[in-house]
Amino acid sequence: MSAANPKVIDIKDRSGITTQPLPGSEKIYITGSRDDIRVPFRQISLTDTPNRDPNLPGEPNAPVMVYDTSGIYTDTTETIDLEKGLTPIRQQWIEERDDTEVLPAFSSNFTRDQDGLEFDIPLFTNRRLPRKAKPGKNVSQMHYARQGIITPEMEYIAIRESMGRAALQAKGELPADKPNHITPEFVRKEVAEGRAIIPANVNHPEAEPMIIGRNFLVKINANIGNSATTSSIEEEVEKMVWSTRWGGDTVMDLSTGKHIHQTREWIIRNSPVPIGTVPLYQALEKVNGIAEDLTWEVFRDTLIEQAEQGVSYFTIHAGIRLAHIPLTVNRTTGIVSRGGSIMAAWCLAHHEESFLYTHFEDICEIMKAYDVSFSLGDGLRPGSQADANDEAQFAELRTLGELTHIAWKHDVQVMIEGPGHVPMHKIKENMDLQLEVCHEAPFYTLGPLVTDIAPGYDHITSGIGAAMIGWFGTAMLCYVTPKEHLGLPNKDDVKVGIITYKIAAHAADLAKGHPGAHERDDAISKARFEFRWEDQFNLGLDPDTARAFHDETLPQPKAKVAHFCSMCGPKFCSMKISHDVKEAFAEKSEEFKAGGSKIYHQI
Amino acid sequence: MSAANPKVIDIKDRSGITTQPLPGSEKIYITGSRDDIRVPFRQISLTDTPNRDPNLPGEPNAPVMVYDTSGIYTDTTETIDLEKGLTPIRQQWIEERDDTEVLPAFSSNFTRDQDGLEFDIPLFTNRRLPRKAKPGKNVSQMHYARQGIITPEMEYIAIRESMGRAALQAKGELPADKPNHITPEFVRKEVAEGRAIIPANVNHPEAEPMIIGRNFLVKINANIGNSATTSSIEEEVEKMVWSTRWGGDTVMDLSTGKHIHQTREWIIRNSPVPIGTVPLYQALEKVNGIAEDLTWEVFRDTLIEQAEQGVSYFTIHAGIRLAHIPLTVNRTTGIVSRGGSIMAAWCLAHHEESFLYTHFEDICEIMKAYDVSFSLGDGLRPGSQADANDEAQFAELRTLGELTHIAWKHDVQVMIEGPGHVPMHKIKENMDLQLEVCHEAPFYTLGPLVTDIAPGYDHITSGIGAAMIGWFGTAMLCYVTPKEHLGLPNKDDVKVGIITYKIAAHAADLAKGHPGAHERDDAISKARFEFRWEDQFNLGLDPDTARAFHDETLPQPKAKVAHFCSMCGPKFCSMKISHDVKEAFAEKSEEFKAGGSKIYHQI
């Protein structure tokens, strides 16, 4: 690593990092009970509703505030310096709790070994020493919640989830027509009871607090990460920024190629959202890809390595037991989870229960010392419609329920991963059984894909299942890109995957009746009906694409106020005619009523 | 029109028409009880499952047969001549019924007037004279069905819907493991009882018979048509061919620009699928776009004009009554159906019930003379989540139920159009109410879109709702393209819309347990698990895109047999490891069983 390395300069000038606000939008902050609880939102400015008489002023439309995952990358008042990393906004809160200490050195052997090596890639040099619970302490948000403590993270989340209503409520300024049940105390209670998790490693103080639970907004996760065949560090950092720009609530770094440790450092230090990983992937790299050579010691060191970097949740496939493996051999698609197949191979090679299962309480001890949450992996999820809801899948799910109880005994936060490929009529059974056997721990599903026959469009096959299972109660949806089953997604694929999953999550919020979820729909529909084209674009999930599609056939500036688009042309726009009808009705109904007609009330 | 017109040559050399079979596929035909019942299917050839020992032969995989809407355009043995039009495969059946006659001239004043004009566009010259029921005769498929007659169309459909099983059954050759309830008699009964329609105008004998009903495969419709701002005849013909190539079961020609009549002739004469229209659009063109100038006479002439060209179903917004209009004035998005807004404007201007409603039985007389089916339009469908399931929408739906009874009195086939924009939790109410008040007439829905906030992605917002409502019982799904709300779709948009809706329809077929629907899923999943990449591409809904996505990162020919893709790389492919696990299990389980171990059966 040297200053002359051109890749360092690439990172420094961040030419490849997307940093502008979304069109028509600016970052605003709502402050909580203390000045350092500053909750970000994206505020979308709207134009006036035009007056029918162009000489009269229009009627103003209030700006619309939306949940914002994009961090300071969309804040024009902030300076972005990837080499420095983001401001550790939670550091003060963590220090005030006085239950952690900064270690004199990294605890992982692997980390220390890596620090002695030379690399031909840029390294993140502004690293902090790791923080860990003081001996005997448990620093999980669940632990605090169960003590009755409302942490600043919880208050932050209450403001964020209630679109600022919790802050108004605390100040006694909440409008009567906008009630709010998402108080800091409600957040605490949901976490205490295990129905929600706050993934918030003490070593990722840069992350903006967020919550995953079915009584909150449905979240989405974007997977990034290189594989042996393609991709670079710069691309991965930009994929994280890009993912959060479009609405990714968490990002999983699933890298399996070279320099996993160094890439992750860059990502975490610059990420405003919690990062999840599957530690097994890196552990397997450490034993040269030979599953049977995996050991508890290698795995344990990997957990510590990643916990001290700041990973906030670990996918751990501890639910695969030796006895489950025979249930998979006659499946159409066997075991399709990478972690699942690796652990199954290990179990068979050693003819033992997996070290993830036998060392589960040891893992809990690590998790609670850094506040890493479990994402208990569904290693036996179905990889085809034919295998959906089979004995293998549900046997593992029951084991995950048992492990949830053990984790909770340690006050360690847990979510449960779910399928996979499931036809629509079998989706609800997944949700219902998960709630029952996993004691309402949050469900975190991949899709599910409702058919197998559309490679190239699996963001859609899975988006259908995701919307449905989100409505039924899934707390977080893991996105699927158009490249699923075919190759590693590029930036465009990541965006399409995210937008598809924002649609699924928002549709679920609407169907669940999440307070305020419909406000954005109402605003965009009003804009649409009033031909405020720019507002329609800006209120959408992807203003750039909406504008580009519109302009493909009508690029002229005046088309942005026209009362039609190229779909129907000027004479055939129903909404234009509908305005005329509305006006005519106002006139005619008076006229007809005066004439004694009752026809409008006949049916 | 002259031979020197270069546009005629454009059509003749059909350089812009897509005519190759899909990759790995060939057209096959299954013959019914008579030689001229030749039902087309696409047969996808598969490669062998490789043997673990590369010196031994692989295990063959039977070809997979799928429903095929693409007509002769994908049949390499056929000659395509757009100027001649397709072979009228139903003509003999229609003539044998001896209840129609060929008229000496077109009945519509408009058609006769047009025939006297000169045009600067190519005209379809190989036109037939129109056919119509003999006086007093009713030529609808429903009429035959109610007489107990199984038409060749019904037998054709039984073979098509049962993937050939009905033909085997008739010959006594049906395998015991593949039962079939979709017999010709079942088709007849469903049509007789109004639960299904066969859109089959006697003037479109070129169309391959198909059925729309909830006890059959879920169908999809693609909308094409020019508008005043863009598009040409050649593009519209190709859009029809393109739509059917990717799986459009019917095509609606929604043209509102110039030369609607002439464009439609080209489309119908070359279309293997039934064509639907909204006659009101053309009627409005005839009165220069002024809704209040519409008259029953203009509308009636338009119905006859289009019926004699061969349109198989008409969207008719007869359910909008004067009394419904006040219910729409306080809506967020008013009236968003073009036909609905036009008729509302007419009703208000005249302060009368619409001529569609008052002349409904006159319309029935026209429909039964050509066998045109009703698609009763939902002029008051909600255009936003806020307006979903409101009084206006359901009041109109009840009126459509009343009209269904009237049409059935005339043995005229009916389907009912449905919404629109509806959040997930309100979708089922739509389906249940439609079945109840419309007496199980087939439902034909546009989406519904489950959120309003994603312009540019409304194929997805609506695909979610479409899959769900298809599962609940909707018989045909009207596609939505990514350009919805923004502009006129181009060819790429049409394809994306179709594939999205094929996904929704197929997911619904799976969830409904349609016999055989899972066979394609099973075949593609087996191919995926066996790394038969080419088979995976070819079994998908869009082989071209799947292949292109795969090749983006791994274009080398050897990657097509590789046991990994760029997503996970060679060491991390779960399915590769899963094969090793399966093999290891086979070895080890014998070994362990011999040793007396019971561990595999412990849980």
Automatic annotation (TrEMBL), chains A, B:
Cofactor binding comment, as recorded: Binds 1 [4Fe-4S] cluster per subunit. The cluster is coordinated with 3 cysteines and an exchangeable S-adenosyl-L-methionine.
Cytoplasm as a keyword of this entry, yes or no, is: no
Gene3D superfamilies, sorted: 6.10.250.620, Radical SAM ThiC family, central domain (3.20.20.540)
Q: Does the keyword Iron apply?
A: yes
Keywords recorded for this protein, A-Z: 4Fe-4S, Iron, Iron-sulfur, Lyase, Metal-binding, S-adenosyl-L-methionine, Thiamine biosynthesis, Zinc
Chain residues that bind [4Fe-4S] cluster: C565, C568, C573
User: Pathway, per Swiss-Prot/TrEMBL?
Assistant: Cofactor biosynthesis; thiamine diphosphate biosynthesis
Record-level GO BP terms: thiamine biosynthetic process; thiamine diphosphate biosynthetic process
TM segment ranges: none
Q: Which cofactor does it need?
A: [4Fe-4S] cluster
Which Gene Ontology cellular component terms are annotated? cytosol
Q: Which InterPro entries match?
A: ThiC, ThiC-associated_dom, ThiC/Bza_core_dom, ThiC/BzaA/B
- Catalytic activity reported: 5-amino-1-(5-phospho-beta-D-ribosyl)imidazole + S-adenosyl-L-methionine = 4-amino-2-methyl-5-(phosphooxymethyl)pyrimidine + CO + 5'-deoxyadenosine + formate + L-methionine + 3 H(+)
> What EC number(s) does this enzyme carry?
4.1.99.17
Family in the record:
Belongs to the ThiC family.
| The protein's name in its UniProt record | Phosphomethylpyrimidine synthase
